[in-house]
Specification:
3 domains; alpha+beta; about 280 residues; single chain; three-stranded antiparallel sheet; Tetrahydropterin Synthase, Chain A
Length: about 280
């Protein structure tokens, strides 16, 4: 009974639309398993491989179709990335310098296939980090330890330009570069601090000296002005002026007299203010 029903079911499936449904369903499942499409996200590029060989065309963002089995698409990130690297170097005056630098970079989108073919996806470890180490050593060796501090913008610019030129050869673009920190030996740091303190003290002493000079000049100017005034007054003194001042003094004395003559017990005469002068006139 079971065998008869099974055979009947097979005959019905072969005669009806079930045969097409099974075929189409099988094809659909096969397509889903092979996945003949690829989706490229924002800030990404697709590297097309034909049986492992890198192709010239680079897939942009969006949906793309590929030939199953024959073609493979490798996704590469071309967004801006940040790398912070510590490097040890020496200045031109043989001072040990420890630097921490930050680099923003990205893969040139149109050259993503070349980067994948020549370097692979580990380009940071293979290209960027060694380049930073070499450039930092080369640039710091041009400056003294003190110049690395006082000319920090120039040092940073030189490092960025050299690093940009070098990484561009590997189709990597530099977006930003900055020196995060400089660290020197303890002895050198103490020497710099002592020098800064001495410069500050010298500057303060110079300001004090300038202030003293100004005050001295002001005092001299005031004394000269006073001496000039006295000289002019002396030049203006004449016998007539002296006589006038004497008469004015006598008048002031008369105004203050209360009309009472002083008691004199001796043989002296009673003084009269200005009488002698009046007699002379």
């Amino acid at each position: 009974m079971y065998d008869v029903d099974l055979d009947a079911l097979k005959r019905r499936m072969n005669r009806g639309p079930w045969k097409k449904i099974i075929i189409y369903g099988g094809i659909l499942v096969l397509i889903l398993l092979l996945k003949p499409w690829v989706q490229i996200g924002a800030g990404e590029r697709g590297i097309v491989l034909n049986f492992g060989a890198v192709q010239k065309n680079v897939l942009g963002e969006g949906m793309h179709f590929r030939v199953p089995i024959m073609q493979e698409v490798v996704i590469m990130d071309v967004k801006i990335h940040k790398a912070v690297t510590d490097a040890a170097s020496a200045s031109s005056d043989l001072q040990d310098v420890a630097l921490s630098v930050a680099l923003n970079y990205h893969i040139i989108p149109g050259k993503a296939n070349v980067v994948y073919q020549r370097i692979g996806v580990e380009f940071k470890e293979r290209i960027i980090d060694p380049a930073i180490q070499e450039v930092v050593k080369a640039i710091t060796a041009r400056y003294t330890a003190e110049e690395l501090i006082t000319k920090r913008p120039a040092v940073s610019t030189a490092m960025r330009e050299t690093l940009s030129e070098r990484l561009l050869q590997s189709n990597i673009s530099v977006d930003a570069f900055s020196i995060v920190s400089f660290n020197f030996s303890k002895i050198f740091t103490e020497a710099i601090e002592a020098k800064q303190t001495a410069e500050q003290n010298a500057l303060k002493a110079k300001r004090d000296l300038d202030r003293i000079k100004v005050e001295a000049e002001q005092t001299i100017a005031a004394a000269q002005a006073q001496a000039e005034a006295l000289r002019l007054q002396k030049m203006n003194i004449s016998p007539d002026l002296i006589e006038l001042r004497r008469i004015e003094a006598n008048l002031k004395a008369i105004e203050k007299w209360n009309g009472i003559l002083p008691n004199v017990t001796g043989s002296g005469a009673i003084p009269f203010i200005g009488v002698g002068d009046a007699a002379k006139r």
